[in-house]
Specification:
Elements: H1 2-28, H2 36-49, H3 59-81, H4 89-100, H5 110-115, H6 123-147, H7 151-154, H8 157-185, H9 203-209, H10 212-223, H11 232-255, E1 257-258, H12 261-274, H13 276-282, H14 288-315, E2 332-333
Antiparallel strand pairs: 1-2
Helix pairs in contact: 1-2, 1-3, 1-4, 2-3, 3-11, 6-8, 8-14, 10-11, 11-12, 11-14, 12-14
Length: 340
């Protein structure tokens, strides 16, 4: 086990050094606020490309490096929006360095990060949440591996996918609570990234509850600049287009192939989110309508997420019992060493 950990650390070090080295260099440019947004975008490309320093034969390691790389990219872009806060000499530089810290995970906006520092959560409940969450996450991971060998799931892709989507929701909830517990032990008064997604009644509500940290970044850096509530439809289109592009790039680099599935998945959410107000009007009757709306929302996410989970199944082959779907749009692979 220690050999595997040592080898993983050896391969993760180059992309991490590249990402944070570029982020530090970018920090020097924050004294020129007008140029900062362009420089942030320019630095993002080599941060993403640094994932290729991890061998193509290790997609999970590339995916882990992608999480850190995405965190750095989002923070540089957010910092360029607030460049004036970091342009005041030594104090501004120290504030920027604290912002770059990868804990809390993917908390990539200055405003939300500042909220986590206003109080120190009690350690007792945080320790209980961290330990119980870790045990539950380990159990979920083992259950996914066990389900991989299920003959019943191997016999039907539809059944396999529906079970895995439902189980993924449980795993994400557990992982969210686990991360929150460890972050609070570290002194951050953070909130769970997920907010009970199983209660979502519409696709729009699902995405507001899912990964609230990245959702906050998209709101401040994409939705509001696009017009916010004055032009909500245009904002929704841009938010899901940007999210789709970010996921597409990171998944493609992790898989050593381009298939367009991530971008297609997020683009498909645009009409569903735009139609959500109509579903909200249907819900005014309450009662059975709420249950029906939750079922419809789950079925939509389950059906459309076939595209999303194709990438997950390639990076983590045990995710699907019978393997992910074939590439619906074709694919272009550039590294023969990558898994098939």
């Amino acid at each position: 086990m220690w050999v595997a950990i040592e080898e993983s650390a050896r391969w993760l070090t180059p992309p991490l050094l590249t990402a944070y080295g570029l982020a530090l260099a970018f920090g020097m440019a924050l004294r020129w606020p007008r140029a900062a947004p362009w420089l942030a975008c320019a630095c993002s490309a080599p941060v993403a490309a640094s994932l290729l320093l991890v061998p193509a034969s290790s997609p999970p390691l590339r995916a882990l490096a992608a999480v850190f790389g995405m965190d750095v990219i989002l923070k540089m872009i957010d910092a360029s929006r607030r460049a004036g806060e970091y342009a005041n000499g030594r104090q501004g530089w120290l504030r920027y360095l604290r912002f770059l810290c990868p804990v809390p995970v993917l908390l990539a906006t200055g405003e939300e990060r500042a909220l986590t520092l206003r109080s120190r959560p009690p350690k007792g409940p945080a320790l209980l949440l961290a330990v119980s969450g870790t045990v539950a996450f380990a159990a979920c991971w083992q259950a996914v591996v066990w389900l991989h060998d299920s003959p019943l799931l191997r016999s039907s892709f539809v059944l396999d996918h529906v079970v895995k989507v439902a189980f993924a929701g449980v795993c994400l909830r557990v992982c969210s609570e686990m991360l929150t517990g460890w972050e609070r032990l570290a002194g951050y008064d953070s909130q769970p990234p997920l907010n009970r997604i199983e209660l979502s009644r519409t696709p729009a509500e699902f995405w507001l509850r899912h990964n609230r940290r990245v959702q906050a970044w998209l709101s401040r850096n994409v939705f509001r600049p696009a017009g916010g509530l004055r032009h909500p439809a245009w904002g929704v289109v841009l938010v899901f287009a940007v999210s789709g592009l970010l996921h597409e790039v990171m998944f493609d680099l992790a898989m050593s192939r381009i298939d367009g599935c991530q971008l297609a998945f997020f683009v498909l959410q645009i009409p569903a989110v735009l139609l959500s107000p109509a579903l909200e009007r249907f819900l005014r009757g309450g009662g059975w309508r709420t249950s029906a709306a939750r079922v419809l929302t789950f079925l939509w996410i389950a059906a459309s997420s076939v595209l999303f989970f194709r990438g997950v199944g390639i990076i983590f082959p045990f995710a699907y019992s019978g393997g992910p779907i074939s590439p619906p749009f074709g694919e272009w692979r550039w590294d023969a060493a990558a898994p098939p």
